[in-house]
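Aim 2 progress update. The chain analyzed this quarter is reproduced below.
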Amino acid sequence: MERAELSIVLTGDDEIATLNRRYRKKDRPTDVLAFAQREGRHGDPAGALLGDVVISVPTAQRQAVARGAGLMSELTFLMAHGLLHLLGWDHDTPAKDRAMRRETKRLCAAAEPAPRRARPAGRKKPGREPTVGASTGPLGRRRSKP
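Predicted structure tokens:
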């Protein structure tokens, strides 16, 4: 799916609770909701837009703390879970749940940054040295000292 698109919304508990109540008839916040554009009566299976993944950051933070993980790890997990829903995966049976958990784990592993290789001792990172009177600003941009 090289040309597929999706939107990601990071929001709070109040907004996701409103969406959960409106679309799932559950009057409470949840961690992630997925709204597929390729399903249902008006779905366009040939379209590039997969749909929307909505994630509650406060809920993700609480879940991360509860399992001893970082927020980015939890957000990645929820993004992968929501993406799988957009692709038609579900967890409404024990077998489907196991399969979806395996695929979510695979996607999360693929999203992890590659480990950094250590440079041999005494070797500097390649690149230009800053000139005298200059420093590096935010995002690595060079700026002159006043």
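The chain has one domain: 5-111. The mean pLDDT is 83. These observations will guide the mutagenesis experiments scheduled for the next reporting period.
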